[in-house]
Every structure is written in structure tokens, then in C-alpha cells.
């Protein structure tokens, strides 16, 4: 059976698309609370780890609020958003524009700024 030139082009584009999609979905972002390894980390209210956590780096363009809590109170937060780079532009040519939506990325590391906060509360000398 003989294949048409069109089917070879389609197979080539699907191969390129899926290869780039697999390569682009690799990786994670490290979320860190530098001054307190016991702080619980939340992404948009959902618990993701304690002291440090990893999240998926690439995905849809969106903003996330990362919050650090210690002893039930918020000690720091940061708003991070996925950014656009060269890879979505390149993927858009072979993926019919879907690379413009699914390959945005967070930075490699997100640091939640907190003031110098002790790991454990200081005990009163009167106790």
C-alpha cells in the first residue's frame, strides 16, 4: 500500500509535536521558606509541603498565591505567575497554537519571604 506525501507530513508533525510536548512538560518548581523548615506551604489554599515543596513547572497561564503558615498563622506569602518564553512560540507552529496555552512556566525557584521568625517559639524564663 502506498502512502501519500500528505500522510508522511502529518506523521512528521505529530512526532515533532509529541516530542516537544514531552520535553516541555518535564521539570518542577521548588517552593521554599528559607527561615523556617517547619512552616507549612499552601498553593491557593491547598497544602503542598512543609519547609519546601515541588510543583509542576509548566502548564496553563495562571497566577498562584503561595502562603507559609507556622503555628496556625500566616508568616509570609508571595504571588507567582507562569510566564511566556520562546518554547511556546516554537510549539505553536507545530501544535496548531496549543503550545501558546499549555507551556507557560513558573520560575525554577519560588522563595516565600518571611521575616526572621524562629523555628520554635521562645520559652519565657518564667515558665
Describe the structure.
By secondary structure, this protein is α+β, with helices and mostly antiparallel strands. The chain has one domain (5-111). 26% of the residues lie in helices and 34% in strands. The chain has a four-stranded antiparallel sheet with strand order 3-2-6-7, with no helix packed on it. The chain has a three-stranded mixed sheet with strand order 4-1-9, with no helix packed on it. It has a two-stranded antiparallel sheet with strand order 5-8. It is elongated, with a radius of gyration of 22 Å. The relative contact order is 0.21.
**Could you give a short account of the major beta sheet?**
4 strands, antiparallel
Secondary-structure element order, N to C: HEEEEEEEHHEE
Globally, the shape reads elongated
**Number of β-strand runs:** 9
Give the rounded overall mean pLDDT: 78
Integer count of domains: 1
As a percent range, the share of helical residues equals: 25-40%
Spatial strand sequence of the major β-sheet: 3-2-6-7
Indicate the low-confidence ranges by residue numbers. Answer: none
**DSSP strand (E) fraction?**
25-35%
Structural class: alpha+beta
Number of helices: 3
